[in-house]
Amino acid sequence: MKLAGSTIRAAARAVTAVLGTPGAADRALSKFFRENRMLGREDRAVAAEAVYAILRQMRTLERVAASTRSLELVMAALVGPMGRNSREVAAALERGADEADAMRRRWHEARTAADPAADLPDWLWERLCAERGDEEATRLAVSLLEVAPLDLRVNAARASRDAVLAQMRLEGWAVEPTPYAPFGLRIAGRPALQEHPLFIDGTIEVQDEASQLVCHLMAPRRGEMVVDFCAGAGGKTLALAALMRSTGRIYAFDVSAKRLDNLRPRLARSGASNVHPQRLESERDPRVKRLHGKIDRVLIDAPCTGLGTLRRNPELKWRQHPSDVAELALKQRAILEAAHRLVKPGARLVYATCSLLGEENEQVVEAFLAAHPEFSVVPARAALAEERIELPPTDEPWLRLLPHSHHTDGFFAALLQRSV
To answer: Which distant-in-sequence residues (6+ apart) come within 8 Å of 115 by Cβ?
Structure first.
């Protein structure tokens, strides 16, 4: 389809709206589309692709555009990562071809230079190099520029993965089983599934494979008492409920009533009957105290920078700062300190984040273990092997998943067991 000047200008307005709005890019983009309902399907598709291309490679595209203005950034994205013809872009905007051709040349020069640090904030690149070494940091930085696939979790209480896989393939979906998670499916790109019958009836849920593996690390048993301490919208809560076949009891705790409200329709679709959402005032809420020493499994999916999800949420790298990391680490330690009291003797706790940084991950856990010798680390890979999930060998006791190694979101999880 021929590119129209109105489409490019609409994309520029969308970029301005998203870059000027704090918070998640997908919500800002949805708001822009609601406020501009006259835009057609092609306009929306180009705008969304341009927004995310710019968020992923903002520094590179600013150099390619020789500007920070939204229209020029969209032109650079079109002739660069979006692969549009530079003459077509120039003609659509009634501009001379020289400007667009120059952008295209600068884009190819940038790709040839292939600087992995170019599209990460300096502070983040320096931390990744310090923690993982230059070579692995480079591979990780490259992988964070990729577009993440769409991962699904099959609700085992409703259907088998093989049956859902066969049905979706018959319908023409390019879908494959996830390499590690036994109920996972992977679809290239970001197709809309909200109107699919399997989604509507709760047979499938959107959930990254890394997040699914954290639930298998929990390994809840039928009839147990489980707490999802920072449940949010409940993706892991629902996965745990399916593993427990709706037996036992799962408390879904969160301080946000809005997030728990988002869980309720998903819970209804899933058919799970053992989930009990409860809003907390804080991690020290009296309702937590009443459960001290009574819980078989506790999951802490702690609030974090989310830097492991940059393939899906590229805006986070431009909105997080070292001070945010330090502030979150304090909050994570406070949550772990409060939640560990729920665990009964012999029971287990999983601390998890979708961060890439040690300050939010192993440093939090190591500080907790130093203060609580009654807890010890259970090697995550061995624990998953007991669930018939085989991950690549590692010397680390943690579950550490990275996009360049495992083709998942970046995730960290520590499995801890209480002795007394």
So the answer is: none
